[in-house]
């Protein structure tokens, strides 16, 4: 049976891989993102049934507008929108700037997921699944970004309890270092990259497809008794930075 899937932040990197994974399985995928250009490129790939629409998932008005273009029943929600905003809140001495930049990561990575999930609550199908994309940063004290991802995992526990009676699962996939994404914005040095890879048991960087396959598993019949969990997909990363 074809399912309706929403992947937020689906234009690039992990989100794109997740959208393509579900589309290749025959599902109908709705992919959103803040930038129209990557979404247009994704749609041009013609990999299965992928429908794209720009949406800022931190904006209630934008999310409300999206609802009119989604089906009445949604089987899988993947909250991938977010990423490090690039603002170094801890480097600010002006309090107003500090709060603004700290909140930017909370809004992008935590509030966006909560807002989108809340807006779609009544459309989530019995037997459906929600998967949030977290980060290894949640366990490493990585500033406001790490705090936002840690908050995402904590908030998901309550969500799993609330949706469990409806047979809807809610889990977090927590990636380690994943290459071929825009996360580091070309600022990752060769030395830092080598250290990140060396910290893994497998001795390689992760790929967007590694995360997509894990998301696909949590949204599959094989994972119906898994909820309220954080699945670490990091190649066995074991060393603190």
Structure report:
InterPro entries: KR_dom, NAD(P)-bd_dom_sf, SDR_fam. This is 3-oxoacyl-ACP reductase. One of its GO terms (biological process) is fatty acid elongation. Residues 3-181 form the Ketoreductase domain. GO terms for molecular function: oxidoreductase activity, acting on the CH-OH group of donors, NAD or NADP as acceptor. The protein is α/β, with parallel strands linked by helices and 241 residues long. The chain has one domain (4-233): Rossmann fold (3-Layer(aba) Sandwich). It is 40% helix and 18% strand. It is built from seven helices and seven strands; from the N terminus they run βαβαβαβαβαβααβ. The chain has helices at 13-24, 36-44, 60-67, 95-120, 143-163, 190-198, 208-218, and strands spanning 4-7, 28-33, 49-54, 74-79, 124-133, 169-175, 230-233. A seven-stranded parallel beta sheet has the order 3-2-1-4-5-6-7, with helices on both faces. The protein is globular, with a radius of gyration of 17 Å. The mean pLDDT is 93.
């Amino acid at each position: 049976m074809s399912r309706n899937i929403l992947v937020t932040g689906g234009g690039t990197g992990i989100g794109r891989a997740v959208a393509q994974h579900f589309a290749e399985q025959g599902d109908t995928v709705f992919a959103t993102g803040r930038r129209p250009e990557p979404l247009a490129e994704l749609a041009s790939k013609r990999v299965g049934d992928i429908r794209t629409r720009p949406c800022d998932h931190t904006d209630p008005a934008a999310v409300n507008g999206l609802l009119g273009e989604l089906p009445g029943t949604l089987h899988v929600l993947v909250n991938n929108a977010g990423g490090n905003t690039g603002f170094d809140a801890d480097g600010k001495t002006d309090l107003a700037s500090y709060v603004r930049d700290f909140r930017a990561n909370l809004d992008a990575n935590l509030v966006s997921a909560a807002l989108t999930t809340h807006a779609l609550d009544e459309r989530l199908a019995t037997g459906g699944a929600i998967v949030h994309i977290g980060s290894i940063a949640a366990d490493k004290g990585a500033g406001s970004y790490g705090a936002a991802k840690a908050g995402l995992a904590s908030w998901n526990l309550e969500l799993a309890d609330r949706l469990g009676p409806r047979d809807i699962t809610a889990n977090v996939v927590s990636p380690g270092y994943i290459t071929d994404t825009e996360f580091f914005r070309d600022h990752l040095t060769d030395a830092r990259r080598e250290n990140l890879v060396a910290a893994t048991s497998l001795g390689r960087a992760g790929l967007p497809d590694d995360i997509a396959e894990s998301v696909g598993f949590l949204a599959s019949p094989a994972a119906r008794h898994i909820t309220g969990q954080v699945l670490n997909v990091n190649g066995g990363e074991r060393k603190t930075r």
